[in-house]
Amino acid sequence: MLTEATVERMFREIVSTNQNSEETFERAEELLETELRDESPLRHRLTVELEELRTLSTK
Fold first, then answer.
1. DSSP letter at 2?
2. Shortest CA distance to 8 belongs to which of 47, 57, 53, 52?
3. DSSP 38
4. 1-57, pLDDT tens digit by residue?
5. Looking at CB atoms within 10 Å, which of 2, 23, 26, 59 has the fewest?
């Protein structure tokens, strides 16, 4: 299991590619699911952020 700081950095790298495709979102989601516990506040925060990015990309 990676540290939360590492997971957040990797998440930022994935979503900052400016390729707001479903594949990018799925990679970010998989990272959160595999590396952070369900009750992690960071997981919750990044999941919310990911959903906002998905919503913005469909507009």
1. -
2. 47
3. T
4. 789 999 999 999 999 876 778 899 999 999 999 999 999 999 999 999 999 999 988
5. 59
